[in-house]
């Protein structure tokens, strides 16, 4: 009987069995391919997770644009501002001039041209570039790009249609109501809280005043102008400066000794808070000798506040007048606690933000 499948030893006159080498090789190939496929799939999953994680940002900042990596040329800015024409000029000062411009893609921007003849311009430009490029908060002015040559330096910033808090506060054609003013000051306080406590190192603005608060289309406040700002190290709580800000807003230790800190910013912020609700500038000619904006407000508390606040805020026949006056009193008392002569007695910006938001919630319930 024949058996074609029989195999074994050749000496016994049967054909040799086929080798298992090819079978083992095939198994190894299948196993190796499977392992490689699993590793590749795992790598792809890890990559996607890392990429997604890298894109995750704070909800507050999710809409903020990244700073453009490329610089804009001088000739582009010249075209955008119609040759830096006077009709596009928004304002000027010792630092330089600010123009409104339209880029080639139609984007409306602010072009801040630095006065290169002024001493310290290069340091001011570099400092503002460094700070604005690294900070990300919805209530800070956003830098779009820059232009830097040997004899020309400019920052290209986001355009704010409603210009500055200073212009609107003292405008004859428009009056900011209580809620608008409080919302704007909460915005500025939130920006300061981020600068002091939310960034990797404390940033001291050093020049807080209404003209450095810009307003967008929705009346959201954006803190601007970091030309004399100071970056502290993690070990530092105070710094010395020889550059002085606007008289009337600076803290006593800043004016007398050139010492700046988070508490000096708190002082300046709350002087601005007083100004916004009284519509009186702290450097007004009416304040002489020992009389100043803070002392005027302090003397009016708690029963004579109506004599010092902006007359456009409330009317005698206003609904919930006493409750609204009480909210204004709370705002003024908060400002008193933040403008103490001794820096250590002032509140920090985290507590200021919390207090203002509580007052805002209460005030909004009366409208």
TrEMBL record:
<dbReference type="GO" id="GO:0004674">
    <property type="term" value="F:protein serine/threonine kinase activity"/>
</dbReference>
<keyword id="KW-0812">Transmembrane</keyword>
<dbReference type="InterPro" id="IPR017441">
    <property type="entry name" value="Protein_kinase_ATP_BS"/>
</dbReference>
<keyword id="KW-0418">Kinase</keyword>
<feature type="domain" description="Protein kinase">
    <location>
        <begin position="84"/>
        <end position="367"/>
    </location>
</feature>
<dbReference type="GO" id="GO:0005524">
    <property type="term" value="F:ATP binding"/>
</dbReference>
<dbReference type="InterPro" id="IPR051564">
    <property type="entry name" value="LRR_receptor-like_kinase"/>
</dbReference>
<dbReference type="Pfam" id="PF00069">
    <property type="entry name" value="Pkinase"/>
</dbReference>
<feature type="transmembrane region" description="Helical">
    <location>
        <begin position="26"/>
        <end position="49"/>
    </location>
</feature>
<keyword id="KW-0547">Nucleotide-binding</keyword>
<keyword id="KW-0325">Glycoprotein</keyword>
<keyword id="KW-0808">Transferase</keyword>
<keyword id="KW-0675">Receptor</keyword>
<dbReference type="InterPro" id="IPR011009">
    <property type="entry name" value="Kinase-like_dom_sf"/>
</dbReference>
<keyword id="KW-0472">Membrane</keyword>
<dbReference type="GO" id="GO:0005886">
    <property type="term" value="C:plasma membrane"/>
</dbReference>
<keyword id="KW-0433">Leucine-rich repeat</keyword>
<keyword id="KW-1003">Cell membrane</keyword>
<keyword id="KW-0597">Phosphoprotein</keyword>
<dbReference type="InterPro" id="IPR008271">
    <property type="entry name" value="Ser/Thr_kinase_AS"/>
</dbReference>
<keyword id="KW-1133">Transmembrane helix</keyword>
<keyword id="KW-0677">Repeat</keyword>
<keyword id="KW-0723">Serine/threonine-protein kinase</keyword>
<comment type="similarity">
    <text>Belongs to the protein kinase superfamily.</text>
</comment>
<dbReference type="InterPro" id="IPR000719">
    <property type="entry name" value="Prot_kinase_dom"/>
</dbReference>
<feature type="binding site">
    <location>
        <position position="112"/>
    </location>
    <ligand>
        <name>ATP</name>
    </ligand>
</feature>
<keyword id="KW-0732">Signal</keyword>
<protein>
    <recommendedName>
        <fullName>non-specific serine/threonine protein kinase</fullName>
        <ecNumber>2.7.11.1</ecNumber>
    </recommendedName>
</protein>
<keyword id="KW-0067">ATP-binding</keyword>
């Amino acid at each position: 009987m024949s058996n074609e499948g029989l195999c074994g030893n050749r000496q016994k006159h049967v054909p040799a069995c086929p080798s298992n080498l090819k079978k083992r090789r095939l198994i190894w190939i299948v196993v190796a391919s499977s392992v490689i496929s699993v590793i590749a799939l795992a790598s792809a999953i890890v990559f996607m997770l890392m990429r997604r994680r890298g894109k995750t940002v704070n909800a507050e900042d999710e809409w903020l644009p990244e700073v453009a990596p490329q610089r804009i040329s001088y000739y582009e800015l010249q075209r955008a501002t119609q040759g830096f024409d006077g009709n596009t000029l928004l304002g000027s000062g010792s630092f330089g001039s600010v123009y409104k411009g339209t880029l080639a893609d139609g984007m409306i921007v602010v072009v801040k041209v630095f006065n290169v003849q002024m001493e310290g311009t290069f340091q001011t430009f570099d400092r503002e570039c460094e700070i604005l490029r690294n900070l990300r908060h919805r209530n800070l002015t956003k830098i779009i790009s820059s232009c830097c040559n040997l004899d020309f330096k400019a920052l290209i910033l986001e355009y704010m249609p409603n210009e500055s808090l200073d212009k609107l506060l003292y405008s004859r054609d428009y009056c900011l109501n209580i809620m608008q003013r409080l919302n704007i000051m909460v915005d500025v306080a939130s920006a300061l809280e981020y600068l002091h406590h939310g960034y990797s190192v404390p940033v001291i603005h050093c020049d807080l005043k209404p003209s450095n608060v810009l307003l967008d289309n929705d009346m959201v406040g954006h803190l601007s102008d970091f030309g004399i700002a100071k970056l502290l190290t993690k070990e530092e709580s105070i710094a010395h400066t020889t550059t002085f800000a606007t008289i009337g807003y600076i803290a006593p230790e800043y004016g007398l000794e050139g010492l700046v800190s988070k508490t000096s910013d708190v002082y300046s912020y709350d002087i601005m808070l007083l100004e916004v609700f009284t519509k009186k500038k702290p450097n007004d000619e009416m304040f002489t000798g020992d009389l100043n904006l803070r002392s005027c407000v302090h003397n009016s508390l708690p029963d004579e506040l109506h004599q010092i606040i902006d007359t456009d805020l409330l009317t005698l026949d206003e609904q919930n007048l006493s409750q609204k006056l009480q909210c204004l009193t709370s705002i003024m008392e908060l400002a008193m606690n933040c403008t103490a002569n001794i820096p250590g007695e002032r509140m920090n910006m985290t507590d200021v933000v919390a207090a203002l938001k509580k007052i805002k919630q209460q005030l909004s319930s009366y409208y």
